[in-house]
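Reply to dn_fold:

You asked what the input looked like. This is it:
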Amino acid sequence: MIEEAVASGVPVEAERLKVMIWLIPVLLALTAFSFRARFYAIPMAPQTSSPLTIAMVFGAFLTYFILGLIVLNVFLSLILHGYGGATDHPEDLVSSFWQVWLNFGTISLSTFCLVVYAWNLKPEVRNLLWNSGRKSFRSLFLDFRIGMIMWLAAFPFVLFVSQGTEWLVSYFFRAAEPSEQQTAIRLLKSIGYDRSMIIAACVVIIAFVPIGEELLFRGFLQSWIRKILGQPWAILITSAAFAGVHFSVLQGIINIELIASLFVLSCILGLLYEWRGSLWAPIALHATFNSVTVLILLLEGRR
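and this is what came back:
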């Protein structure tokens, strides 16, 4: 829609305002329905009986983030050793094709190790993380379906915030137009249209990333903060951390749009986690968001 406005000579800011105005009645209707469904009815008091400790949360973050850095540095060090230490930037010796595969492998390995780490904790901690100790398979499948359907409710809120912050950035800062989506499109173009790479990208982005990030942020971090401060603060602080780790220096002022959108999405994921009492619901919503984004990027990349 924004690209069509540019092509027709309509100011982009005016087109964004039009989108936001059309979204307002949709958001009001969704908010009213959410209150009737008691989506926002979450307890305020901390849950001091939680078996989750700060050491477990710290171990989860080390497992997920530090492991990826170790794998990447070991791989690049081997390359540097193979070239006899002839360069201070071994990543320059790796083609963009293999750099992408290395990133895919690092994310997959980090997620796998985090799941193994969580699985080896005490049973009561595992049940707390996944909130699935008393749920049947049919109930868990229902949580997954609800998470997918929740995309219809979450997307208008995220789009409204994205358009609003993008309008503010372009109006007050006169920022250049490139966004995170366009960066992702350039990445897809840089790796070409290799079918195996596209399939690997879809598996990592749609499966491994939602499982790893939801287990880490909703399962570990939000559950631990809930123990101390209660659910509202747990959702807000976790959402701020979730948005913050996606900060990209290369995006400059455009980070405002990205972080604001991810903060809203994370709040919805946190509410869904508390509402359904299962980690599979936010995983499904996160995976659906990523699926739609990948589909859009692939279509845009082929224009």
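The longest helix spans residues 195-229.
Hope that clears it up.
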